[in-house]
């Protein structure tokens, strides 16, 4: 017999503690609110345990191997013998503390919040039910509910796939060794980063992408650059390919493509996008449409009366920095809403959302691509420069491939988008993000002094190319 638990009244319930939910919980608790954070898995979410941090540690290791292999051209001899053991150890011990979130929980508790382990769902305005290991707990949130449920790996409905022991990012970061061979289903950010990581550790890698090119949301020039590096490193790429069947016989996977090709590999990584389950989250009980993959929010992250939503599920960019940016705005709005009902001052502005895919070359992008800008009806002027032929690229030598592409609103004379790809693409991106965000006139960008010989000095050449059109 289950006993009915009394409803616990609190100020705020946070369902899901991804990077944004964790951050907002701390902010609200430190401000003196009574906050309960509900987490089904690990406090911190995908990023610290299965996403950004462990995968970037893997990237760091594979980049070290690639640099060591360039020594022959630059500085003599380095015998390179890849070993996955230090990678697995760093991911387990340093990145994820063996997938244990004690420190994160303690940090929230120190801030004054309570963490409840379980799966939460809205059951009505201000009402939350949590399925815990010991039964159900119910909360009434007088100030509001903040949703930060994040996403799960999506698994395409390919015949046979569901019955196989495929990897998603969650298994890939727990790899105890680099497999002999790997098929990667999906050539987006996850697929490309991990394909190159494992290839550099000696794994024979084949990427199968349904779309026309790798990293589709980025500029085509960036996709081409990456594809040519993948080819040079022996990573197979099949674009426009449909997998019709997956089998797992004996030790390996067999993928059958629509043209009859069969790909055989020891491991299969499914990196084909993400999914959400809004129905299970109970959002319909507060009037939010649960039929899609995202929840519409206003510029203060409000989705319904007393409901704020942040993170990947808002559809404004599935990145940790977006989740945390939204957390700050939502927390301020929740606090201010209680004071005078008016809400916070800061409004979300997504004109200059940056992203970096940590392949080598690193691909950084901000704002609109050329195609998106044209679709938006902007009078577009573009400028492109090749990083390898810049002074720094020339000095750098092997591994210098890259580019800077600028997208200008020619009427306004400001940049609305930019791509920086190369050895330090993500770092070059910083100044371009500032230019897009602050609408720095292109005339001013041309008058600036760019240190010689840096990679970011290539921006000057890309600006000169804008003038040539
Ligand atoms: C392999 C990989 C690499 C990535 N690399 C980068 C990178 O380099 N840079 C970058 O900016 N982004 C990266 N990302 C994306 C980044 O991880 C996410 O954008 C980020 O985690 C923000 O997600 P979120 O805040 O929406 O929630 P998530 O991080 O997805 O966390 C949501 C949390 O909510 C919990 N939850 C869900 N539903 C419930 C419920 N009903 N009750 C209780 N708890 C619930 C989940 O258990 C989870 O812990 C990467 C992602 C992956 C998968
Ligand atoms: N460095 C970073 O910031 C970083 C790194 C990894 C992930 N992320 C975030 O996580 C999100 C999810 O990453 P992801 O790579 O899984 O998704 P994604 O949406 O970026 O890419 C998925 C790819 O899989 C392809 N695909 C889908 N179904 C397929 C099928 N049946 N067969 C072959 N290909 C198929 C899609 O065409 C797409 O190109 C990213 O969009 C990004 O926002 C960020």
Walk me through the structure.
With 469 residues, the chain is of the alpha/beta class. The chain folds into 3 domains: 8-44 and 101-151 and 276-340, FAD/NAD(P)-binding domain (3-Layer(bba) Sandwich); 161-272, FAD/NAD(P)-binding domain (3-Layer(bba) Sandwich), CATH 3.50.50; 354-468, Enolase-like, domain 1. Helix content is 33%, strand content 26%. The chain is built from 14 helices and 22 strands. The strands form 5 sheets. Strands 1, 2, 3, 4, 5, 6, 16 and 17 form an 8-stranded mixed sheet that branches. Strands 18-19-22-21-20 form a 5-stranded antiparallel sheet, with helices on both faces. The radius of gyration is 24 Å and the shape is globular. The N and C termini lie far apart (76 Å). Residues 15-20, 38-42, 45-47, 50-52, 55-56, 119-121, 148-151, 169, 190, 281, 311-313, 318-321, 323, 358 line the site of flavin-adenine dinucleotide (FAD). It comes from Isoptericola peretonis. Residues 353-462 form the Pyridine nucleotide-disulphide oxidoreductase dimerisation domain.
Features of this protein?
alpha/beta, five-stranded antiparallel sheet, flavoprotein, FAD/NAD-bd_sf, 26% strand, 469 residues, FAD/NAD-binding_dom, binds flavin-adenine dinucleotide, FAD/NAD(P)-binding domain, 3 domains, Enolase-like, domain 1, binds nicotinamide-adenine-dinucleotide, globular
